[in-house]
Amino acid sequence: MRRIDHQRGTLFGLAISDALGAAVEFKSPGTFKPVTGYRGGGPHGLAPGEWTDDTSMALALADSIGKVGWDLNDQARRYVKWWQTGTYSVNGRCFDIGNATVAALHRFQETGDARTSGDPSERTSGNGSIMRLAPVPIHYCYMFPNEIGHLVERAVESSLPTHASPQCLSACVYMTVVLCGLIDGRSWDEVLDPEWEPMRRARDIAPFHQEIAEIADGSFRRKQPPEIVGSGYVVKSLEAALWAFHDAEDFREAVLRAVNLGDDADTTGAICGQLAGAYWGEAGIPAEWLEGFGSRTPSRFACTNQGISRSSRRNDSTGH
Fold it and tell me: What is the DSSP secondary-structure string of 172-228?
């Protein structure tokens, strides 16, 4: 039961922290009243507790894994469905989507090949594939720690439909292994240790881009804002989420640190929320945030979360 609580915490942590940051997205740090709970407004005019594209794409990915197994084309089709019809959105429409994601989904519609639809150039290194990542470690945590090679493969492939740059691929590998360790019950100081053996194995299999290697080596411990930035760039975004998480006392402190960095606040929150949820579990998320979010949660969210956290090797499919 402990593992299920931490699997569920990973996805709820993503969504709740996304919703916490939504109202201050695109605002510079220090220009808004600090976030302490849900608030309405923001660039998309959302109600308190409503989520953005981070959660919508995570739900699409979770739905795909839970229903058909591992199939990149099915994942991309569900992203297209969200983009074009608002499926998985909190309000039935796609109101927030990154330029790199739009371009990649256009390519997928033209080619039908999600494995090559993401742009591999470094200029498209946004945070879109780590913001939605939670379903991968949730479902495939059974591969940790004995099947690191297969886990690395899943992490890399999960990014390809929309974000194929070296930075994005390395960020997905790093974060997937960290999340699996946290779900497995390892301490945060163990999984964030640069010498942690499972991460060393992952780096041997898929050597990290230099900027992600610097994060894995602990750059987030040595910096403070304004060097820590809640940017849309995958490197800065991952570093900011880890900075917010790594020495926080609890889930609340971690994710509020993240969203109060401003700028890409919903996504910094979503990334940090995955880490914090994997570590403290659903039980560690403040009750008022679960209740405030749950009152606006479609049954699809609850069912997807429950189903994917209980899924097993038996219903997995490689999709190759």
Answer: HHHHHHHHHHHHTT--HHHHT-TT-HHHHHHHHHSPPPHHHHHHHTTGGGS--TTTS
Q: How far apart are CA 278 and CA 287, in angstroms?
A: 16
Phi, psi of 53 (to 5 degrees): -65, -25
- Please report the pLDDT score of residue 304 as a whole number: 53
Q: Is the model's pTM score more than 0.90? A: yes
Q: Sign of torsion, CA 223 178 50 159?
A: positive
pLDDT digits (tens, 9 = 90+) for 253-298: 999 999 999 999 999 999 999 999 999 999 999 999 999 884 455 4
In residues, how long is the chain?
320
* Alpha carbons 310 and 279: distance in angstroms, whole number: 18
Task: Show the CA angle centred on residue 70, arms to residues 66 and 71, nearest 5°.
Answer: 110
Per DSSP, the residues of 86-138 read: -TT-SSSS-----HHHHHHHHHHHHH--GGGTSB-SGGG-BSTTTTT-THHHH
What is the distance between the alpha carbons of residues 14 and 311, in angstroms, rounded to a whole number? 19
Q: Which of 165, 46, 158, 53 lies closest to 102, judged by CA?
A: 53
What average pLDDT does this structure show over 288-315?
A: 57
Rounded distance, CA 238 to CA 215, Å? Answer: 8
C-alpha span between 182 and 150 (Å, rounded): 18
CB contact at 8 A, 82 and 94: yes
Could you tell me the two tokens for 267?
């996504």
Residue-wise pLDDT tens digits, 155-190: 999 999 999 999 999 999 999 999 999 999 999 999
Q: For residue 41, give the 3-state DSSP assignment.
A: strand
Give CA–CA dist 223/202, Å, rounded. 25
Per-residue tokens: 270:
């979503």
Shortest CA distance to 289 belongs to which of 5, 18, 6, 4?
18
Q: Beta-carbon neighbour count of residue 134 at 10 Å? A: 35
Instruction: Determine the Cα–Cα distance for residues 5 and 309; give it in Å rounded to an integer.
Output: 9
